[in-house]
Each structure stands twice: as C-alpha cells, then as structure tokens.
Amino acid sequence: MDIPQQDMPGSNSKVEFYPGDIRFKLSLPELFNYEEILYYLNRSKLECLHQVDQGRIYKLIRVKEAETMLPFQLEYDQEAHALNVQSLLETPLLAEECQAAAAYITEWLDLDRDLTPVETLVASDPILSKFPESLRGLRIVGVPDLFEALCWAVLGQQINLTFAYTLKRRLTETYGEQHQYGERTYHLFPTPQSMLTASVQDLKELQITTKKSEYILDLARRISSGELQKGGLIASGYYEAEQTLISIRGIGPWTAHYVLMRCLRDPAAFPIGDAGLHAALKRQLGLSVKPTPDQIRELFKPWAGYEAYAVFYLWRTLTL
User: What mean pLDDT is predicted for residues 16-30?
Assistant: First the structure.
C-alpha cells in the first residue's frame, strides 16, 4: 500500500503520514550525517531541552497551530534514508502536529540546505580537506526559537561551555515548562512572556551576572512586544538583521553572528571573534598564537557566502 506523501510548504522535505497514526516519516537530503547530529546534540550531559539515547532523539515542542505540546522521538531509518518520527502521546497525531513537528525538525537539523557547494569548498580547503569523511553531510544544528537563541548566546558570552549549559538549565528549570511523558521528563525553554515578571535580582540568584540578566529581560520585553521578530529579521536581509541585532544592548558582533548562523540560518554569518574558531585555526595551522582577524579573513575568502559552515566545521575539528 502506498503511503500518502505530503510536500512541506517552503521546504524540500516530504512527509509520509497516515491520518490517525502516531508516527510519520520525514525525507532527507542525500548528504546527511545522522551520527554527527547525535554527536553534536549529545555534547553535554547538562543539556535539558532534548535527550539522546541509543540512537534516538527525544524532544518536546509547542504546536501553536493546534495549541498543544508534542513530545516526540526520532531515529534514522538507514534503509529508507529518512527520519522516523513518533509521537509519545497516546492519541493519534493531528495533521497540524505532524506538519509542525516536520517543519521544526527540518529547520532544527538544517535539512533544506543544499550542501553540494559546501562539499566542494571542503574538498579544496587546506585545513578541512584533511577531514573529508568526518565532515561529509555535517549540517548546522540550529536553535529555531529566536528568544532561546539570543539567551543562549548571551549566557555563553565570555564563559566556558559547561557553565553556559549550567546557566541555561537553571533558567529553563526556573522559568520554563516541565512535563512528564512515560519515564522521561521534558523541558521547554522559557517564553519571553514567562520572563516578564522576573527581575534582575531573580536571575542573579541563578548566578547570571547583572549585565546578562538585564540583557535577557530586555530581549524578553522586545520580543513580547513584537518589536523584535524572527520573521522580520530574516525578511530584512543579512546586513539589516546584523545591524538591528548589534543595536540592542548586550549584543555585539559575535552574538549577532551566532544568532544569524544558528537561528536566522544565514550561511554568510561569520562570528570572526569566536574563541573556538581561533583555537581550531591555531591548532590546525600549528600557530604559537591565535590568528589575527586579517589572517582569518584571508583564510575565509574562498568561503564567501558560506562562512557559517566553515566555522561550524572548524569547531568540529576541535574534537577530531
């Protein structure tokens, strides 16, 4: 029996879904590396917004169209080269839930990006060409929610990754939502609205600095009021989005480009001041000191328009 296929609006992915079922299948682009997705998502035991267990990914999302929440698990079907996605609710999936989950996963895992130009650049790159198989099909795992992406970037300013995860977990457990499905506990990142009653002192009690607390609360107000919207930033284009973000207190070039890269999905995003990027280049080039901005710009010239992928791939070389 043929399985009904649905095209996803604005996407190259297709969804195979029987109405009344609790699962669906999501098609994948030819270049896709599930093991690398698992590796990235499993990089910290302090992560609370998703779980990775025995090759499966577990996550809870909000479905605005159906005014529901959907916990799901997904795993890679090697034979079909697709993702099998299953609702963890006891009731059949609504069509809106299926479409919302498929759209979320497609954006989260960067499934709509054509990696052919990126592969060509990797093959000719003096550093990344040493890791062709490791990087093949590697996609930029994103942060689809603008408020979450901005908060994560602000929290991560000038601290190590472990402490950044600790702060994110505290913020999520205090102001986000927690739900139990089966034996697993799922968390949702705080909404901007849920942060409006918080004070700087409240956030300081979580060990978030005064300045970062002020930045986060200001972002919550801007997004709640509609002053700052993801759709508007994307529609404005790379330069205008960058300038809008940098004009906000607490958001410098690094934070702006990190959000452009992981939330707004601009392949030209270039967080040139990133410490991890500097460490990767220093290591791969055998330098005694970190490279200068001019040296980095020269190295990245061939990657014009795809700088975000070069950065993401260089981050990965730190653990290869």
Answer: 93
The pLDDT value given to residue 18: 86
Cβ(305)–Cβ(268) below 8 Å = yes
- Selection from 310, 60, 34, 29 nearest residue 185 by Cα: 60
Residue of 111, 23, 11 lying closest to 70 (CA atoms): 23
Looking at the annotation, which residues are catalytic?
274
Q: In what order do the strands lie in the sheet with 50-53?
A: 5-7, 14-16, 23-27, 82-87, 68-77, 56-63, 50-53
Q: Which pLDDT tens digit goes with each residue over 193-223?
A: 999 999 999 999 999 999 999 999 999 999 9
Query: What DSSP assignment string belongs to 123-149?
Result: HH-TTGGGSHHHHTT--------HHHH
pLDDT at 52: 98
φ/ψ of 104, rounded to 5, equals -65, -50
- Distance in angstroms (rounded) separating the CA atoms of residues 227 and 204: 26
- Domain covering 5-112, topology: TATA-Binding Protein (3.30.310)
Rounded CA-CA distance 64/104 in Å is: 12
Q: For 93-113, what is the mean pLDDT?
A: 94
3-state secondary structure of 75: strand
* Residue 279 identity (one-letter amino acid): A
Report residue 139 as tokens: 């996609």
Tokens for 123?
Answer: 């093959």
- pTM summary value: 0.94
Cross-strand bridge partners of residue 63: 68
Match domain 146-317 to its CATH number in 1.10.340.30, 1.20.1250.20, 3.30.50.10, 1.10.10.10.
Answer: 1.10.340.30
